[in-house]
């Protein structure tokens, strides 16, 4: 695949002659403003040499989304906005609403240098990989300072919308484990390619679901190639979403392959509890879900009070406890103590084979106070600012 970056500017390694002796030296030009620097850093148009992707014209995507009408917007994130559009299934040419194949069109902020970097990273990784648990990138557009990406449309949206948002479709235990297993399979593939990829932004909003609740990882804007030459980690600027980023990464800027495993453990904890990793509406000791839940995960009785009440106890207790034990391993403070994603995947496949036992009818049991029943009310997600653009980078 070709390089995603614009070609370097040619240079003949010459410099202007020095002024003659005795002539005044001309004053240096004023330094460019921040906006001028950003504009100069973003080429107006570009093309990426990759046989797997279609290069769309901006006019085509404007037509496919009806000029990016607000009622076609699917969501908004750190990169920009995502719109629903329609294209011909064979030619990928724009088509009328309801005709042809639905797609998701991600449109960046045209003045964002960071947006361009994330756009390039997405093309670099998703243009290279094809896997059932990675969202499929169909094409891109880089024209007139506009850079866009076109993906397959995922009918059921994000895992986040099902776990936390009011009115989201409630999902039973077996589907939750199916989602976790699919996401684990996608992450394991990234970690075991010839050139290891560290995802760096594993969270519920980046797990998309198709009509059959098959999970696919999306948003590769922060993905990075893993360590080489025998190194254990990559040193980089700390970016990501607070709560999901591994402690060693936040503290040192060292990102390990197993830093992704920590984020996976956090999402798995959200899946079984139905609670956000961070929620300012919860009591002080419960704001950080990982810190608050960790002591209860190894205790079967305490674990039952952590489980999402919307499951209505319809889950195999053996499987729930095995999942909790897996979470504990994934969120170990020391990355060397965490399992790799292949081991995580094997554990989840075993958990998925554990079935419910018939239960005897029991009387209503009083639940102790828990964050599921916090008097502040509202949706279970609480403060959504932790998952939005404001928390994208530290």
From TrEMBL:
Biased composition (Low complexity) is annotated at: 34-44
Q: Indicate which residues the UniProt annotation says bind ATP.
A: 107
Superkingdom of this protein's organism: Eukaryota
- Give residue spans, biased composition: Basic residues: 354-375
Chain intervals with Pro residues compositional bias? 16-33
UniProt keyword terms in alphabetical order: ATP-binding, Cell membrane, Kinase, Membrane, Nucleotide-binding, Serine/threonine-protein kinase, Transferase
- Molecular function GO labels: ATP binding; protein serine/threonine kinase activity
Catalysed reaction, written as an equation? L-seryl-[protein] + ATP = O-phospho-L-seryl-[protein] + ADP + H(+); L-threonyl-[protein] + ATP = O-phospho-L-threonyl-[protein] + ADP + H(+)
Which organism is the protein's source?
Salvia divinorum (Maria pastora)
**UniProt entry tagged with the keyword Transmembrane helix:** no
Report the main location listed first in the record: membrane
Q: Does the keyword Plastid apply?
A: no
Which cellular component terms (GO) are annotated to the entry? Answer: plasma membrane
Region annotation (Disordered) ranges: 1-48, 351-394
Q: Where is the signal peptide?
A: none
Cellular localisation: Cell membrane
| Alphabetical list of Gene3D superfamilies matching this protein | Phosphorylase Kinase, domain 1, Transferase(Phosphotransferase) domain 1
Q: Would you tell me the protein name for this molecule?
A: non-specific serine/threonine protein kinase
Q: State the family it belongs to.
A: Belongs to the protein kinase superfamily.
């Amino acid at each position: 695949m070709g390089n995603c970056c614009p070609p370097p500017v040619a240079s003949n390694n010459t410099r202007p002659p020095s002024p003659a002796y005795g002539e005044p030296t001309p004053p240096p030009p004023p330094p460019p403003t921040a906006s001028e620097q950003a504009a100069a850093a973003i080429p107006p148009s570009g093309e990426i040499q990759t046989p797997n992707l279609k290069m769309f014209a901006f006019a085509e995507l404007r037509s496919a989304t009806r000029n990016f009408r607000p009622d076609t917007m699917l969501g908004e994130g750190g990169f920009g906005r995502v719109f629903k559009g329609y294209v011909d299934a064979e030619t990928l040419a724009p088509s009328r609403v309801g005709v042809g194949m639905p797609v998701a069109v991600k449109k960046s902020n045209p003045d964002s240098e960071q947006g361009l970097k994330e756009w390039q990273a997405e093309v670099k990784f998703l243009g290279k990989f094809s896997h059932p648990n990675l969202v499929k990138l169909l094409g891109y557009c880089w024209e007139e300072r506009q850079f866009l990406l076109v993906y397959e449309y995922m009918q059921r949206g994000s895992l986040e919308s099902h776990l936390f948002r009011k009115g989201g479709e409630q999902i039973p235990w077996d589907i939750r484990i199916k989602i976790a297993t699919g996401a684990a399979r996608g992450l394991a593939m990234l970690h075991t390619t010839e050139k290891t990829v560290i995802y760096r932004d594993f969270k519920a909003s980046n797990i998309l679901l198709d009509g059959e609740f098959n999970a696919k990882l999306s948003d590769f804007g922060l993905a990075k190639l893993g360590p080489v030459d025998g190194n254990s980690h990559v040193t980089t600027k700390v970016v990501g979403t607070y709560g999901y980023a591994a402690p060693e990464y936040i503290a040192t800027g060292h990102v390990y392959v197993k830093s992704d495993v920590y984020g996976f453990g956090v999402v798995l904890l959200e899946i079984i509890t139905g609670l956000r990793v961070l929620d300012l509406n919860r009591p002080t000791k419960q704001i950080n879900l990982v810190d608050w839940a960790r002591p209860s995960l190894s205790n079967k009785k305490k674990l039952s009070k952590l489980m999402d009440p919307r499951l209505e106890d319809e889950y195999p207790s053996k499987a729930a406890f095995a999942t909790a034990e897996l979470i504990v391993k994934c969120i170990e403070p020391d990355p060397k103590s965490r399992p790799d994603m292949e081991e995580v995947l094997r554990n989840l496949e075993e958990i998925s084979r554990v079935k419910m036992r018939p239960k005897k009818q029991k009387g209503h049991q009083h639940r102790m106070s828990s964050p599921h029943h916090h008097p502040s009310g509202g949706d279970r997600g609480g403060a959504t600012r932790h998952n939005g653009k404001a928390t994208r980078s530290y």
